[in-house]
């Protein structure tokens, strides 16, 4: 065909189409680069954990990273506190089995994650682990240089360290896009400050986590020669590889994000490999499909193998609340069984089937919390998604199985979310919206769910 007869396609569309076709035996890069692949392959640790090599430092980083954003809580004196004893045991197990990358933030676990992480890790030699934390200056009140500096220095105190191995500009591209990025990091001089801190050795590696407006992502990569990003954190899983645009209209597919990093030899750190837990809590027909292909391993292991098989990935983060989550994920990566090209096609076909369910792209990160009116936003959205995946969102009272589905939704709703924290209490103040990394219009979704619930109550 003559070149002039071809329909031009953008780089982003090309990477979406090339996802499975370009996979090489050594990994899943859309356009395989043997040199880049070799540079980041770190073999296995003494404990059997698959590792990747930081190309800047030569350090061996465990392919499984411990995300400290969903730490277990317990009751103490009538209030919720982090279960430090369990966190300590989980951190001990992780280190004993080769996990050495721990990712936290001032915003995680109601602001308690950094302190809990510092307590657990400070019981071990500093040379045994890498700490990643973030400048999480989301709220306008923290945009000033003084407030941002206080947050930065407080991270050192909470984590009980004199240097931070991986420091991220947190959630760039969310909320107000480029204008917000300028306020948070440029006009107040904070990015220049962090670059100087890296030069002084108090920051080992400097990067950013991307959450939304692609113009910010493209701008920061265009400035790579100036900033020399050591890594970038992106959301990658077998749904978002091709379908991020469908689940979130502002989020570009992971295939584009990954390839832009790979071709610049910037290591990728992966968040949300389970898409907020949705890839481990699948509808029955998807579970049957995955278990039929690999009955000896869990549904979640498919997602972790997928994210870990890309050769330019430095580590894959998992927010683990229970010990059994940690044990299973350690097993998945000790060592990693890279996906074959046929298995990648199988997962991409599975993702296409999953897109038939119009779920809300909530990752249960709880950045929207606390709600000033006491609403449990994540629990409401998670329950809705769960019922949608299980077929318990009846279109009308004439739908097959309506009574069963109606009862399952209403009973489950009251069990999952106390009545005083349900969607009908949302007044639409929109204070939650700027904090959502998935750019969900939360009040609109809460009002829609509340209308659905009221309809179910009226239709006996």
CATH architecture label of the largest domain: Alpha-Beta Barrel
SS summary, helix count: 18
Look at the structure and give the mean pLDDT. Answer: 88
How far is the N terminus from the C terminus? Answer: 62 Å
Description:
The protein has 460 residues and is of the alpha/beta class. It folds into two domains: 10-354, TIM Barrel; 377-458, no CATH class. It has helices at residues 11-18, 34-40, 84-96, 113-121, 145-159, 177-186, 190-200, 214-222, 224-227, 240-247, 254-262, 284-293, 299-308, 323-332, 341-354, 377-389, 402-416, 442-458, and strands at 41-44, 50-53, 60-62, 64-67, 73-76, 79-82, 101-103, 130-135, 164-172, 203-210, 231-235, 268-271, 313-319. A hairpin with a 6-residue loop joins strand 2 and strand 3 (60-62). The longest helix has 17 residues, at 442-458. The termini are far apart.
List keywords for this structure.
eight-stranded parallel beta barrel; TIM Barrel; 14% strand; globular; 42% helix; alpha/beta; 2 domains; three-stranded antiparallel β-sheet; 460 residues; 13 strands; 18 helices; disordered N terminus
Q: How would you summarize what this structure contains?
A:
The protein has helices at 11-18, 34-40, 84-96, 113-121, 145-159, 177-186, 190-200, 214-222, 224-227, 240-247, 254-262, 284-293, 299-308, 323-332, 341-354, 377-389, 402-416, 442-458, and strands at residues 41-44, 50-53, 60-62, 64-67, 73-76, 79-82, 101-103, 130-135, 164-172, 203-210, 231-235, 268-271, 313-319. The protein has 460 residues and is an alpha/beta fold.
């Amino acid at each position: 065909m003559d070149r002039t007869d071809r329909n031009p396609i953008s780089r982003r569309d090309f990477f979406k189409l090339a996802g499975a076709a370009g996979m090489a035996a050594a990994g899943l890069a859309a356009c395989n680069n043997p040199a880049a692949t070799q540079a980041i392959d770190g073999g296995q640790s003494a404990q059997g954990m698959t590792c990747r090599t930081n190309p800047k430092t030569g350090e061996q980083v465990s392919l499984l990273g411990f995300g400290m954003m969903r730490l277990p809580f317990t009751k103490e004196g009538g209030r919720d506190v982090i279960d430090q004893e369990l966190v300590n045991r989980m951190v001990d197990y992780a280190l004993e089995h080769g996990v050495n990358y721990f990712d936290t933030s001032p915003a995680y676990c109601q602001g308690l994650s950094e302190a809990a992480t510092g307590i657990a890790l400070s019981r071990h030699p500093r040379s045994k682990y890498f700490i990643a934390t973030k400048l999480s200056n989301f709220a306008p009140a923290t945009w000033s240089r003084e407030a941002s500096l206080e947050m930065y220095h407080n991270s050192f105190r909470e984590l009980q360290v004199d240097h931070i191995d991986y420091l991220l500009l947190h959630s760039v591209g969310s909320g107000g896009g480029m204008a917000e990025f300028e306020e948070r990091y440029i006009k107040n001089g904070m990015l220049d400050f962090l670059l100087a801190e890296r030069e002084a050795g108090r920051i080992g590696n400097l990067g950013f986590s991307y959450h939304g407006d692609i113009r910010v992502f493209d701008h920061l990569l265009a400035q790579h020669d100036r900033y020399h990003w050591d890594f970038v954190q992106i959301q990658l899983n077998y749904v978002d590889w091709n379908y991020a645009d469908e689940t979130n209209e502002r989020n570009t597919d992971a295939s584009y994000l990954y390839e832009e990093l790979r071709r610049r030899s910037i290591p990728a750190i992966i968040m949300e490999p389970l898409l907020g837990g949705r890839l481990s809590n699948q509808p029955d027909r998807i579970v049957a499909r995955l278990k039929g292909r690999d009955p000896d391993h869990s549904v979640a292991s498919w997602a972790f193998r997928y994210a870990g098989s890309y050769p330019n990935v430095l580590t894959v983060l998992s927010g683990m609340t229970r010990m059994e989550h940690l044990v299973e994920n350690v097993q998945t990566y000790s060592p990693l069984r890279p996906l074959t090209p046929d298995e990648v096609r199988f997962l991409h076909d599975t993702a296409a089937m999953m897109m038939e369910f119009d779920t809300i792209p909530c990752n249960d990160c709880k950045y929207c919390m606390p709600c000033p009116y006491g609403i449990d936003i994540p629990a409401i959205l998670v329950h809705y998604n769960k019922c949608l995946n299980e077929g318990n969102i009846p279109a009308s009272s004439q739908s097959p199985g309506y009574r069963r589905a109606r009862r399952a939704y209403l009973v489950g709703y009251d069990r999952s979310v106390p009545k005083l924290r349900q969607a009908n209490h949302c007044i639409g103040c929109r204070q939650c919206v700027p904090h959502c990394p998935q750019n969900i219009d939360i009040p609109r979704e809460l009002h829609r769910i509340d209308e659905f619930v009221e309809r179910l109550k009226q239709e006996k």
